[in-house]
Amino acid sequence: VHGGLGSAHGKAILMGEHSVVYGAPAVALPLLDLQTAASVREANHGSISSDLYTGPLHAAPRELKPVVTALRATAERVGLNSDSFEIVISSTVPLERGLGSSAAVAAAMVRAVSNAVGVALTPEETFELVQIAENVAHGTSSGLDAHAVRSLSPVRFQSGQPTPVTVARSLTFVIADTGTSGSTSAAVNGVRMLRKVNPSFVNGIIDTLAGLAEDTITALGAGDAAALGQHMSAGHEQLARLGVSAPSLDALVTAARMSGAHGAKLTGSGLGGCVLALVDGADSADGVIDAMKAAGATQAWKTSLVSSQIA
Ligand code: PMV
């Protein structure tokens, strides 16, 4: 084993969470300020080192089961004995906030392990190995996160197919954390149950969200921040009707809109986690950040979709 390194980044879903599970398109943004790194070094027993836990693989806590399962599968794929190395993970992607931490850790790990033995995996193979972790973490997963944490441009995702999205100009977003974590599987199951009870209601919302995802792509391509913000706020309303918002999320969306954001919505599976707001340039971000903190955000920060990310 030679030292292998791998990295990935966080993501935010701009439109289409939940509806993507039913075949509608979704759009995710890369969050390049939030990075996850993994490195592999030779050791005499399989072990993992991270903020959550440091010790032997077999004694890793439940939270690490997704990455440990994917780690063993990756080692097997590249012909490495998973008891012959230590994997060291460091990440600035907040955990369980809908920002892609589990997929980012898995993607960084897959790259580190394959680099350690010099085996080049195809994007499809890497995706499948990251999906092993995502499926252990969330039951079943659309695959959006697994693509978004490796893509440097915004990505459109539908029925397993990722496509880069063109963005006409740089945009500034604010991400605000409610400080609570929503369970992705609880949110996804809640929508599935509601759809069983009331299919026409839920299918109508899925169709509306599908239209909003296409409108979002159009607004990104035209650089129309006002339209994009309106689509985001409309998307939040639809997600609330699906039952995946929460009072803490609604309060942050309202605060963002009242303080001059173009629009705002929950991002990720909901029930907790984060709100994504589109602001009118970096200068107006501070007022929106203050308003969202006053409305209960435990953390809020700005992030840009800059020209280097433009496809
Ligand atoms: O909780 P997150 O950010 O990983 O988002 C899950 C996105 C869903 O659409 C709710 C589920 C999925 O598998 O796409």
From TrEMBL:
Residue intervals of the GHMP kinase C-terminal domain: 217-296
Enzyme class: transferase
MF-aspect GO terms: mevalonate kinase activity
Domain of life: Bacteria
Keyword annotations from UniProtKB, A to Z: ATP-binding, Cytoplasm, Kinase, Lipid biosynthesis, Lipid metabolism, Magnesium, Nucleotide-binding, Transferase
GHMP kinase N-terminal domain ranges (all copies): 67-146
Enzyme Commission number: 2.7.1.36
Pathway annotation from the record: Isoprenoid biosynthesis; isopentenyl diphosphate biosynthesis via mevalonate pathway; isopentenyl diphosphate from (R)-mevalonate: step 1/3
UniProt xrefs under PANTHER family: MEVALONATE KINASE
Protein name in UniProt: Mevalonate kinase
Taxon lineage: Bacteria, Bacillati, Actinomycetota, Actinomycetes, Actinomycetales
Name of the gene: mvk
